[in-house]
């Protein structure tokens, strides 16, 4: 009788184990109003070992493997802010000396980590795949995460929180750990990193209701600080994330300049403007990912040449360089 009961338990355990294994042209084409469904599958909590402490002041900001030449391929698992910050990334990397560049964004509007996890385990074709491998962007609908992971051997893959949850560190787990593990199965040699994005604009209560209500009565600077704290917590808990992009501080630095009025930098609460915003977002990402020489860059977005005066270019470059010098605080922009 005991042998029979033991056999039943073994078969049940094996069944349970087996059952658990298993975004052309400029960005205005993007539909930023698409909303994710509300249903979410929550993975089982796992007990992880206490991660080794990493001093926030010593967190790496620049890719330690940056070669400044040769081939570089990058996949962002994210949402519209990733589309914003990668729009001119190809151009900055090519200018810096990389002969072959591939940039892709696995996009779903405002997608937080729990939704990425949901789409991952159900192999849901919910994504739009933005891809740039020859200087122009193509857009393909109906992608799954696994389809993007099978495209090529990605050199770098980034993660970030979205959906108005970047100020809530308690929303990161257990989703990030499980997504990383899944991605690693497809990409055993890829290097992982974390994108730290920018705080939204200060807006009227009516505008806040229209866009994102999760920030409640927080000021822009309070949201910025919360985003920074989340990034530090994530980097401490995930040593496999090799560096963090200080985009939030670069944007906040530029906000201290009198140039930044209206839609100069942010066009609609969160999204970067097509000229200065896209330029700034891509420059800070190119510095983190490809270790480009910011001072040597002469790239100006095509069609916007008359807007980029030497003074404005110096202001934008200084905002980025100061973000790498002081990644967890705001530096007054000197170009006035």
Shape: globular
Strand ordering within the main sheet = 4-3-2-1-5-6-7
The secondary-structure class comes to alpha/beta
Radius of gyration using CA atoms only: 21 Å
Q: The biggest beta sheet, please?
A: 7 strands, mixed
User: Averaging pLDDT over every residue, what do you get?
Assistant: 85
The total tally of domains equals 1
Q: Do you know the CATH topology?
A: Rossmann fold
Number of helices in the DSSP assignment: 11
Strand element count: 9
What's the helical proportion of residues?
A: 25-40%
Please give the CATH class: Alpha Beta
Return the CATH architecture.
3-Layer(aba) Sandwich
Strand-and-helix sequence, N→C?
HEHHEHEEHEHEHHEHEEHH
CATH level-four homologous superfamily name: SGNH hydrolase
Overall description:
The chain has 336 residues and is α/β, with parallel strands linked by helices. It has one domain (66-325): Rossmann fold. Helix content is 37%, strand content 16%. It contains eleven helices and nine strands. The chain has helices at residues 2-20, 80-86, 89-96, 113-121, 145-149, 175-186, 205-210, 220-237, 247-254, 276-290, 310-325, and strands at 70-78, 98-107, 127-132, 137-143, 156-159, 191-196, 241-246, 266-268, 271-272. Strands 4-3-2-1-5-6-7 form a seven-stranded mixed beta sheet, with helices on both faces. The longest helix has 19 residues, at 2-20. The chain is globular. The chain starts with a helix and ends in an 11-residue tail after the last helix.
